[in-house]
């Protein structure tokens, strides 16, 4: 599951400004789509509409054939994991942040402790350990560590669909590799929409949508877009 369709979707934040001008695309279940384009082109708006932060001004969005306007908000959000650019952490342990960190998950979905620990060990593996309080570490959590924590708590929720806004900050090569491993673990087998800033993500995407001024102006794999450039 996790087949996503945007059908002629427009969106206006206000009547004078059209943020999306009738966009259509289809993502097969399990595929990764990279959204690229200049700041202000509409990439974040696409993710917000799929999460029903807003509904389209016109047009429709479907998940597995069902119009998301007809889904319960919390059942929709249980099926979608969001990794924002700036992760907000609870002032609690790393364990707590992994198990309860997804503020959109209802508490019926609270995660299995053993699973959370296993995810921690495979993709986090912080030297100070699982029960370290984030607050005590405070600002010693680097951007890369915060990102991995955000990824871990998304994996634990096990959603079929992932929305990811990649961090723009430059990372050293070791951190880069750790993040890439975590991203691979998270996106494998899941439908992923990613606002892509990293070349490796763009190159691995099944399809790239180039967004400009509220429209999709090009579609294709990395190789196809280069060939047509
Ligand atoms: P990004 O390029 O990552 O989307 P922006 O600087 O465009 O970052 O937006 C940062 C935040 O400000 C977003 O959460 C967005 O909702 C909000 N924002 C962007 N443009 C406007 C605007 N014209 N009016 C109000 N809020 C805006
Ligand atoms: P991107 O993610 O590609 O940077 P956005 O989807 O954030 O672009 O923004 C698309 C357009 O919508 C921009 O013109 C932006 O200023 C506007 N916008 C974004 N968020 C808001 C908001 N909360 N209120 C009003 N306008 C917004």
UniProtKB/TrEMBL annotation:
Compartment list: Cell membrane; Early endosome membrane; Endoplasmic reticulum membrane; Endosome membrane
Domain ABC transporter: 4-229
Annotated signal sequence range: none
Record-stated family: Belongs to the ABC transporter superfamily. ABCB family. Heavy Metal importer (TC 3.A.1.210) subfamily.
Subunit: Homodimer.
Name used for this protein in its record: ATP-binding cassette sub-family B member 6
């Amino acid at each position: 599951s996790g087949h996503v369709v945007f059908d002629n979707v427009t969106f206006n934040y206000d009547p004078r400004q059209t943020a999306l001008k009738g966009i259509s695309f289809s993502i097969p279940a399990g595929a990764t789509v990279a959204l690229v384009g200049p700041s202000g082109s509409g990439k974040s708006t696409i993710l917000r509409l799929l999460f029903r932060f807003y509904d389209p001004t016109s047009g429709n969005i479907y998940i597995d054939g069902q119009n998301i306007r007809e889904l319960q908000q919390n059942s929709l959000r249980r099926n979608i994991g969001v990794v924002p650019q700036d992760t907000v952490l609870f002032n609690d342990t790393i364990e707590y942040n992994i198990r309860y960190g997804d503020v959109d998950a209802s508490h019926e979905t609270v995660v299995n402790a053993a699973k959370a620990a296993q995810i921690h060990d495979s993709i986090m593996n912080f030297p100070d350990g699982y029960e370290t309080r984030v607050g005590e570490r405070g600002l010693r959590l680097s951007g890369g560590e915060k990102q991995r924590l955000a990824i871990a708590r998304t994996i634990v929720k096990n959603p079929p669909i992932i929305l990811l806004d990649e961090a723009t900050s430059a990372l050293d090569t070791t951190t880069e590799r750790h993040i890439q491993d975590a991203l691979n673990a998270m996106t494998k087998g899941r439908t992923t929409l990613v606002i892509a800033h990293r070349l490796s993500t763009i190159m691995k995407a099944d399809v790239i949508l180039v967004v400009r001024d509220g429209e999709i102006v090009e579609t294709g794999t990395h190789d196809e877009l280069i060939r047509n450039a």
